[in-house]
Design goal:
With 662 residues, the protein is mainly alpha-helical. It is built from 30 helices and ten strands. A hairpin with a 5-residue loop joins β5 and β6.
């Protein structure tokens, strides 16, 4: 039995030695990763390569979202020769052609036929009057003439005077008058056949000023060009032709007044025939093809984008999207862009060296910075790449929201919570700068991104609850929405586009805040960082370890609370983290729960177990509460800062009481 116990002790010693060597080996490797300059240099190179790849590789003008009438901030030059069908120029040409197509009219003879019938009736009455007037007195003749004129006027919109009718009756005999009437009707019919329009009507309003040739649709459906005349010109033509018949002027005047009653506009617009003629003209029209030579400037910075430039840019973007293998001018400028990224990262290194020396000396914290920066820029690039989707290609109002979909506040918030505000502000500047570069060197995107990021950093300075992260994201999104409204108004953007940008900015801020709440625990675990949110959750007195301490070691529990209060007040005074000090103090003595009766604060009735124990054994028990505390902390997955405090809170000095007793 004794031999077995001896072997067991030897075996346990060997296991402890192996664990110690393994722990020391692991610890030395972790220390190497934490402080090695080669690791820092590798991290620097990887960060530069990642940012160059994300911000520049594959980014071409096909993704630049420039809206119509917006002031451009970047020059876009065609790197390849291409051609496209210009809908804008084609529509303009169609409009010009349609404006040149003369309208089609129809000549109506109904008014002439009606007047001819009424005139024949008039002369029938006159023939009867001629037969009967020899038997009538002068008064009866005058009355008959008045009756005939009134009857004629009632037959239509005519104004024949009795005097004119009496004058006509003085011209020759009945046959001479009928012959003169036939001549007048013939002249009137020719006038009708050529077409008459009223200058005050809608037809007269669209008639050309100098050319009176218009399209006339015949009964057969064929179109012919005819010279038409206005109502005034038609009256003049009628009077001249009557005067050429060698009849007395008085008769000419009276007969003209009679025939003028039958003269009216007979030119009517034919909508169906006009549309058919326009359609026929459009069928022969070829679309306008624009050929753009390599090196031609499409967009110039500082100028508002015209409809022609906007159409050419869209055509160039489609060309590049359909020919992704072509080399562009941007590919030749990669060297300069690499230098730009290196310069910015070097500036970041110096800034961190001056403002946050602890981060500068920790590869773990630098890795956190680099990873979060690269992750944030990757999401920005992903938002940019959405421009290749059909909905964003076809509708400029949707493509305008892409800069507001970029979650630029992601890295600033995470860095603020896990590291501090100074690195977070510089990270905000870096992300804003490269976001502006990705979206076509747009200064407005750079400034808006930096503004939103700064507001987010300010809102997360002393965050102790997860809802405060979402609220900070909401305020950052609100700033984007407000300035989208102001900039949209300044750029004269459509109201619908401005509303979409405002909604996109606000929703991006809120969704980014909620995403950070989910992502934060993984970041804490991966980089062994403890946030105030986690620490605040550990101050809950219902934590299993604290409840167990209340029951099994109430004296130690009370002692821990007193130490927590003291350390928290001291931390306030010296500028340390009060919450961190309080939480670590509450858990620093959890190892005493293994043998609580061996610690003075838990002893009752004056009984001290150390009085009956060897001083070496007593000292071992005192030392073991540190080791037991670390084991319990690991079991309950307490954060690394608490474990470090448990391990270090007694230092390495001699346990003087039991040393003197021994």
């Amino acid at each position: 039995m004794k031999q077995l116990q001896a072997l067991s002790k030897i075996s346990n010693k060997l296991v402890r030695r192996r664990r110690k060597r393994k722990t020391e080996s692991t610890s030395s490797f972790v220390q190497f990763l934490e402080t090695s300059k080669s690791v820092s240099l590798s991290l620097f190179v990887l960060t530069v390569v990642s940012i160059v790849f994300i911000s520049f590789v594959g980014v071409n003008p096909a993704g630049f979202q420039i809206l119509l009438n917006q002031r451009a901030s970047v020059r876009i030059i065609a790197d390849q020769e291409f051609s496209y069908e210009s809908k804008l120029l084609t529509e303009r040409k169609q409009t010009e052609v349609l404006n040149q197509v003369p309208p089609v009219y129809r000549i109506g003879m109904e008014a002439y036929e009606q007047f001819e019938q009424h005139l024949k009736t008039l002369f029938t009455d006159l023939r009867a009057f001629d037969k009967a007037r020899s038997k009538q007195s002068a008064e009866e003749q005058s009355a008959s003439i008045d009756e005939i004129a009134q009857k004629f006027n009632l037959a239509g919109p005519y104004r024949l005077g009795s005097n004119d009718l009496a004058t006509l009756l003085e011209y020759g005999d009945i046959n001479s008058r009928e012959k003169l009437t036939d001549t007048g009707l013939f002249i009137l019919k020719e006038i009708y056949r050529s077409g008459v329009y009223d200058e005050d009507s809608s037809v007269g309003a669209v008639m050309p000023d100098s050319v009176s040739l218009i399209n006339i649709k015949k009964k057969s459906g064929a179109l012919s060009q005819s010279r038409v005349q206005s109502f005034e010109d038609a009256q003049t033509f009628l009077r001249i032709n009557l005067a050429a018949e060698n009849i007395p002027p008085a008769i000419v005047t009276a007969f003209f007044r009679l025939l003028r009653n039958g003269l009216s506009a007979n030119l009517f617009f034919d909508q169906e025939a006009s549309d058919a003629l326009k359609a026929k003209m459009l069928e022969t029209l070829q679309p306008e093809i624009v050929r753009v030579e390599a090196g031609r400037s499409i967009i110039e910075p500082g100028t508002r984008v015209s409809p022609e430039q906007f159409e050419m840019l869209k055509a160039y973007q489609d060309y590049l999207n359909n020919n992704k293998g072509l080399a562009t001018r941007d590919d030749l400028e990669m060297y300069g862009r690499i230098l730009l990224v290196i310069a910015m990262i070097i500036a970041a290194v110096f800034y961190i060296r001056m403002e946050d020396l602890l981060t500068f000396q920790s590869n773990r914290r630098l890795s956190l910075l680099a990873l979060v920066l690269v992750l944030n820029l990757s999401l920005v690039r992903l938002a940019f790449e959405l421009s290749s989707l059909p909905i964003f290609i076809s509708d400029p109002s949707w493509s305008a929201i892409l800069p507001y979909l970029a979650p630029v506040i992601l890295a600033p918030i995470i860095i603020t919570i896990l590291i501090g505000t100074s690195p977070a502000l510089f990270a905000s500047l870096l992300i804003s700068l490269f976001t502006g570069v990705i979206y076509g060197n747009r200064l407005d995107i750079l400034v808006l991104s930096f503004l939103a990021s700064t507001i987010a950093v300010y809102g997360c300075r002393h965050v102790r609850s997860r809802k405060k992260i979402v609220r900070a994201g909401g305020f950052a999104g609100l700033s984007l929405a407000l300035f989208a409204l102001f900039l949209g108004y300044a750029n004269q953007l459509p109201i619908l586009t401005i509303v979409k940008q405002m909604i996109a900015g606000q929703m991006t801020g809120l969704i980014t805040g909620m995403f950070i709440v989910v992502l934060l625990p993984f970041m804490e675990s991966l980089f062994r960082q403890t946030t105030d949110i986690t620490l605040l959750e550990l101050t809950d007195y219902n934590h299993p370890l604290l409840r167990k301490m209340q029951m099994e070691a109430p004296g130690t529990y009370h002692h821990s609370l007193m130490v927590a209060n003291l350390s928290e007040n001291a931390a306030h005074i010296i500028g340390a983290n009060p919450l961190n000090c309080r939480v670590c103090s509450m858990f620093h003595d959890i190892g005493k729960m293994i043998k609580p009766e061996y610690f003075a604060e838990n002893q009752r009735d004056g009984v001290n177990p150390h009085d009956e124990k060897n001083p070496s054994f007593s000292a071992l028990i005192i030392k073991c509460h540190v080791k037991e505390g670390v084991d319990m902390a690991l079991k309950y997955k307490l954060p690394r800062p608490i474990i470090n405090v448990i391990r270090q809170h007694h230092g390495t000095s001699l346990i003087w009481y039991f040393f003197h007793r021994a």
